[in-house]
Design a protein that fits this description.
alpha/beta, 349 residues, 9 strands, Phosphatidylinositol Transfer Protein Sec14p, 41% helix, 12 helices, single chain
Length: 349
């Protein structure tokens, strides 16, 4: 009887989510609303269980593992890269190409409250228009050379669940060297770059689901805080808050885990402030670690995926900050060919 009761509850929950999506589509005047064919509860992402070493959907208890699907006939993003490949610029934004999946993200973010999800979607559509999310990858960012040298980062493989992960050496970033009076970037440049980053990640997630299974719908990230200074430019916190607001309002339910490693003592005070900017559900996905991070990372990411610098076996070197290569004036274009050749000389890709 207990198992029958569970099935009954699950079926009722499934139907509730179907009804929520149907109602949301109707409010958005999408047709035919009643024939979307999606069960939103089936798209709820699994959470990685470090003890069982598999993904588990919190509500249904369904277990997931990373599959290795045959993608030989597909044109997919590489698993690792410094520079987003130009052949994938201009591809459709997943926000629009999988709009039912997008609506399900907003429904989950608002616990299937249709009215709240509707308001959130409407605001996101306005924000995306203002931020030019749909067209932002139609051409390369002219400030690319600044980001590559002043904000070292790497799109670095996939975690144990198949989610793409990204490494940023955030503690090495010096906002005072990138923004006036010493630098040339403004607050809007940073917002634009974060949108570009999220559009990259949306496409990485889309491709990862084809490689490792349809359960992949989120990302993982490592932010290395080594070098973070108490005397750093206070504008850094404003820029981080901007990024969090964009994520929560425009890209909900994309974050799987965020590991903040090499967090210095001063970060405790900063974290107390940051937690006030995000909802508790999102805050629970942040994992703050000191220098003893290796054991924790290896519970989520295979050793052959982690860079050697973090105790892994992946020989791809992490990027380095190089402010000498940051131009003193705003670039009018990005010499992609020269940059790619430089990467090849360094044995990178």
């Amino acid at each position: 009887m207990a198992s029958l009761a569970k099935v009954s509850r699950d079926e009722a929950y499934d139907q509730m989510t179907v009804d929520a999506l149907t109602s949301l589509r109707e409010k958005l005047k999408l047709t035919p609303a009643e024939k979307h064919g999606v069960v939103p509860s089936h798209l709820e992402p699994p959470v990685w269980d470090v003890q069982k070493q598999q993904g588990i959907c919190p509500r249904s208890g369904k277990e997931y593992k990373r599959e290795n699907l045959d993608v030989s006939s597909l044109s997919l993003l590489p698993t690792h890269f410094r520079l987003f490949p130009s052949k994938f610029l201009g591809t459709p934004a997943p926000f629009n190409s999988d709009f039912n999946g997008t609506l399900c993200r907003f429904l989950r973010a608002r616990d299937y409250d249709v009215d709240k999800a509707y308001e959130m979607v409407q605001q996101a559509i306005k924000s995306r228009e203002l931020l030019k999310c749909d067209s932002i990858l139609n051409e390369r960012d002219t400030n690319e050379i600044i980001w590559q040298n002043g904000t070292p980062h790497y799109h670095y493989g996939h975690d144990k669940l198949g989610r793409p992960f990204y490494i940023e050496l955030s503690g090495k970033v010096r906002v005072g060297k990138l923004m006036p009076p010493a630098g040339v970037l403004d607050r809007d440049d940073f917002k634009k770059r974060h949108v570009i980053h999220m559009e990259y990640m949306c496409r990485r997630i889309e491709h990862a689901s084809k490689r490792f299974g349809g359960h992949v719908s989120q990302l993982s990230q490592i932010m290395d805080l080594e070098g973070l200074s108490y005397f750093g430019d206070s504008r850094g916190m404003t820029l981080f808050k901007d990024a969090l607001e964009i994520d929560q309002n425009t890209y909900p339910e994309y974050l799987g885990n965020l590991f903040l490693i090499n967090a210095p003592f001063i970060f405790r005070g900063m974290w107390a402030i940051i937690k006030g900017w995000i909802d508790p559900k999102t805050a629970a996905k942040f994992v703050v670690l000191g220098s003893d991070y290796k054991e924790t990372l290896l519970k989520y990411i295979d050793i052959d995926q982690l860079p050697i610098e973090y105790g892994g076996r992946n020989p791809r070197s992490l990027p380095v900050v190089n402010f000498d290569n940051v131009p003193g004036t705003k670039p009018k274009s990005f010499d992609e060919g020269a940059f790619v050749e430089e990467l090849k000389k360094m044995g990178d890709d």
